[in-house]
């Protein structure tokens, strides 16, 4: 068994070629998928925490402040930029796709409303005008009917 001199070093060239053609796009796909999944997790967690924060607040002003702080913490936990987040409140039974932003919860006993948090997802290495994906989380808040005066 004699090796041909023409074949020396070809395994390294083939490995480098396959690494560039297969592994680099694969790593980019994993990074892009991770960014999208991180945005979805951030939107869901932020909506849930904002709903809990405003649902237990004594008045609407305090509740809105608590909800914004809860959203900031939830998206920071997922390493999402807080400037890419929008909070909206909707009446019960309305989907987040119909966000009009005109509803404000009164926080009266027995009130039901939804908290919608929309996060803009940034995929790595894509320019901003291409990168317009959003993830939306929704949480339904039901205030207790019986509250101590």
Question: Secondary-structure map with pairings?
Answer:
Layout: H1 10-55, H2 60-77, E1 85-91, E2 112-121, E3 133-142
Antiparallel strand pairs: 1-2, 2-3
Helix pairs in contact: 1-2
Question: What's the short story on this structure?
Answer:
The protein has 149 residues and is of the alpha+beta class. The chain is built from two helices and three strands; from the N terminus they run ααβββ.
Written overview of the protein:
With 149 residues, this protein is of the alpha+beta class. Helices cover 43% and strands 18% of the residues. A 3-stranded antiparallel sheet has the order 1-2-3, with helices on one face. Helix 1 (10-55) runs antiparallel to helix 2. It is rod-shaped.
Low-confidence stretches: none
Task: Please provide the count of β strands.
Answer: 3
Q: Helical proportion? A: 40-55%
Helix/strand structural class: alpha+beta
How are the strands of the largest sheet arranged? 1-2-3
Order of helices and strands: HHEEE
| Global outline | rod-shaped
Biggest beta-sheet profile: 3 strands, antiparallel
Task: Give average pLDDT, whole number.
Answer: 85
Sum up the structure in keywords.
149 residues; alpha+beta; three-stranded antiparallel sheet; 2 helices
């Amino acid at each position: 068994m004699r090796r041909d001199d023409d074949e020396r070093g070809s395994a390294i060239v083939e490995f480098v070629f396959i690494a560039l053609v297969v592994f680099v796009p694969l790593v980019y796909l994993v990074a892009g998928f991770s960014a999208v999944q991180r945005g979805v997790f951030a939107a869901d967690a932020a909506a849930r925490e904002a709903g809990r924060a405003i649902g237990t607040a004594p008045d609407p002003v305090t509740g809105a402040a608590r909800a914004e702080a809860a959203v900031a913490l939830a998206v920071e936990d997922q390493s999402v930029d807080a400037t890419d987040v929008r909070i909206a409140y909707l009446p019960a039974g309305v989907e987040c796709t119909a966000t009009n932003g005109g509803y404000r919860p009164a926080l009266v006993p027995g009130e039901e409303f939804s908290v919608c948090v929309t996060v803009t997802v940034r995929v790595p290495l894509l320019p901003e005008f291409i990168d317009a994906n959003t993830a939306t989380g929704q949480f339904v808040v039901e205030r207790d009917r019986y509250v101590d005066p």
